[in-house]
Design goal:
Elements lengths: L1 H15 L8 H7 L3 H6 L4 H12 L6 E8 L8 E7 L4 E2 L2 E10 L2 E22 L2 E8 L7 E5 L21 E4 L6 E3 L8
């Protein structure tokens, strides 16, 4: 707070000065926000997902994942469809797919679907007010194909290989080889 007050005072003092700024100074001042400005900025929803993953899975270390946003329940707020990869989340049949819905300042998990693979699609059909999803299933000793995941009123099914198979096509939200992001734990001071 003290840094913010000092910054505002300095800004006010500069604004009162009659000296013209040096050429290029305006570009330099706007190119990189100060740490005081960025400290007060609200986190983006992508940053919220990073924080969620790191808090929910503290033993996973750095988490590589794919992310898509889609309003699945028609409330006007996008749900996060998260596909984390790595040994903590994946086995021979695939990885977990997470479906997270906004719940106040954080997210509530309404899907933790094991044995799933990309691509992930959102169908036009709905179950209990939520869009149906499809995921690829293969390996792990189960059938290969596309599983339809229907919301049961509380959550999506926990195991894609146990869901009904489908030929239905939907809107692809995560490609077979999706763009990956990284959530990395931040070392605390003194570590």
């Amino acid at each position: 707070m003290r840094l913010l007050a000092v910054s505002l005072f300095a800004l006010a003092a500069c604004a009162c000065s009659q000296d013209a700024p040096e050429p290029g100074a305006a570009e330099d001042a706007t190119a990189t926000p100060s740490s005081a400005e960025t400290q007060g900025a609200a986190p983006t929803r992508d940053e919220d997902i990073n924080r969620y993953l790191l808090q929910e899975y503290p033993d996973a270390g750095a988490i590589q994942y794919a992310l898509a946003w889609r309003d699945l329940n028609g409330d006007g707020a996008d749900e996060a469809i998260v596909y984390p990869i790595g040994p903590f989340f994946c086995g021979s049949g695939g990885c977990n797919t997470l479906v997270l819905t906004p719940a106040g300042p954080m997210y509530e998990k309404v899907g933790d679907i094991s044995v799933s693979r990309t691509p992930i699609e959102v169908l036009d059909t709905s179950s209990n007010g939520w869009k149906d999803l499809t995921v690829a299933v293969a390996g792990g000793g189960g059938a290969n194909g596309r599983a339809v995941l229907r919301f049961d009123g509380k959550a999506y099914p926990g195991n894609a290989s146990m869901a009904d198979m489908t030929d239905a096509k939907g809107t692809e939200v995560l490609a077979e080889e999706p763009e990956l992001r990284m959530a990395e734990p931040v070392a605390e001071a003194g570590d």
